[in-house]
Design goal:
CATH superfamily of the largest domain: Endonuclease/exonuclease/phosphatase
Shape: globular
Order of helices and strands: HHHEHEHEEEEEEEHEHEEEEEHEEEEEEE
CATH class of the largest domain: Alpha Beta
Number of strands: 22
CATH architecture of the largest domain: 4-Layer Sandwich
Helix content: 25-40%
Strand content: 25-35%
Radius of gyration: 25 Å
Distance between the termini: 13 Å
Oligomer: single chain
Number of domains: 2
Length: 417
């Protein structure tokens, strides 16, 4: 706000200073019509407002979000897979018109969640392939926000995977990879990979790094077929680095107690990768890591609370991660999904302590963690009362809604030194 105030004063001095006032006064003495004087002042005022608005918008928070898209399949038969329920002749009768309705629902919800600004990073899960991402982000009004994505197809038997979508107005991709699920006690069981990407932030004013010209930097980026290719890009040398993990842990389909070990395995893998990033950082440097996803467990369940050691900020201990969705206080809604009468928070965003440090660079904006719950994403629950999610399907029954999960988000702000 100091920068905005200073800029406003500077332009006011330049445009409405003594010289400008003298010209207006001279115009009055020369007999200018009052309408000309008024027009000149109005033009100057509009220019000041334009500059001020651009400076303010440059300081807008960067939104980081996650959403389980609920079976975001294309409508075509995939001959390489056994599972083809989401096709026109499949069990779900997933036609092109149903696909486009789902896509349009999703883009409207994303625009509403982003407040019509580009989301910096959007983690997603239950995404089939690049076709659905291209349709959503290149063939709808979302295309104006310059989104790119990372999607690497994994071993899920239904063919749905995590994805990371990002706006190149805010971030440049440095590298991406997946960390496979592995359970040493049951090597025959396969689950979804954990998707990882490393980003460098783009300076808010678009001027490269703070104080020097951007350098040509080698980066890795995912090509359309999912292969990571080495590229050379102009990257800001002094932009913040963010490490992002997107998760979709094993479901409770076979029972909560029967599957708790599988989710603990995912938590162990994630924690080991985060610890590795922190341990390999130069002395005095604290990496900024953001973990997000549908964990299929609540914040107080053992996989999250004990194995990952993610705690609500009010419960922090040495060596713990910050779970910004550890309690539903001040999140704006009761939960991200509903089981019978109970709302639960399966979808969470967790960060390392460096993301909470407001002294320099991108950091968490206090109180910004929210469960996004637009009215059009909910409907009346006639069985258990209150509201429930307006879903695409419930079992084989088609409803034409959005998802069986609500999205979550946090905002980052730049504490530029």
């Amino acid at each position: 706000m100091y920068i905005c105030h200073k800029t406003f004063k500077t332009f006011k001095t330049i445009l409405l200073g003594r010289a400008a006032r003298n010209r207006v006064a001279a115009g009055k003495r020369a007999g200018w019509p009052l309408s000309h004087v008024f027009t000149l002042k109005l033009v100057l005022l509009c220019f000041v407002c334009f500059v001020f608005n651009n400076v303010v918008s440059a300081q807008d928070p960067v939104r980081i979000a996650f959403w389980n898209m609920e079976n975001f399949f294309d409508p075509f038969v995939d001959s390489t897979r056994v599972y083809n329920a989401f096709t026109e002749d499949g069990m779900q009768h997933w036609t092109k018109s149903r696909f486009y309705k789902k896509r349009n629902n999703m883009y409207k919800a994303i625009l509403a969640m982003s407040e019509n600004r580009p989301i910096g990073i959007l983690g997603m899960c239950e995404v089939e392939n690049e076709y659905v991402l291209r349709s959503l982000f290149e063939q709808t009004p979302l295309k104006k926000h310059n989104y790119r994505w990372v999607l690497i197809e994994g071993p899920d038997k239904r063919g749905i995977d995590p994805a990371i979508v990002y706006s190149i107005d805010h971030f440049q991709l440095v590298e991406s990879k997946v960390f496979p699920y592995y359970n040493p006690e049951d090597t025959s069981y396969h689950s979804r990979d954990i998707l990882y990407a490393k980003f460098v932030s783009v300076h808010p004013l678009g001027s490269g790094d703070r104080g020097s010209s951007p350098a040509m930097t080698p980066v890795e980026e995912t090509s359309p077929n999912g292969v990571i290719a080495g590229l050379t890009r102009n990257l800001p040398q002094m932009g913040d680095t963010l490490h992002v993990f997107v998760n979709h842990w094993p479901s409770r389909y076979s029972g909560e107690l029967e599957t708790v070990g599988s989710r603990s395995c995912s938590a162990t893998i994630l924690r080991s990768k985060v610890d590795s990033i922190v341990a390999s950082a130069p002395e005095g440097y604290h990496p900024k890591v953001i973990m997000m996803g549908d964990l299929n467990d609540c914040p107080t369940d053992p996989s999250v609370y004990d194995v990952l050691r993610a705690r609500h900020p009010s419960e922090m201990e040495e060596g713990c991660l910050y779970n910004l969705f550890g309690k539903n206080d001040d999140l704006g809604f009761e939960g991200t999904l509903k089981h019978q009468a109970d709302w639960q928070i399966f979808d969470q965003i967790i960060v390392t302590p460096a993301v909470m440090d407001d002294r320099e660079g991108l950091h968490y904006q206090e109180g910004s963690a929210r469960i996004f719950h637009a009215d059009f994403m909910l409907e009346d629950d006639e069985t258990y009362h209150g509201k429930k999610l307006f879903r695409t399907y419930i079992g084989p029954r088609y409803f034409g809604g959005f998802s069986d999960h609500l999205p979550v988000y946090i905002d980052l702000v730049d504490g530029m030194p």
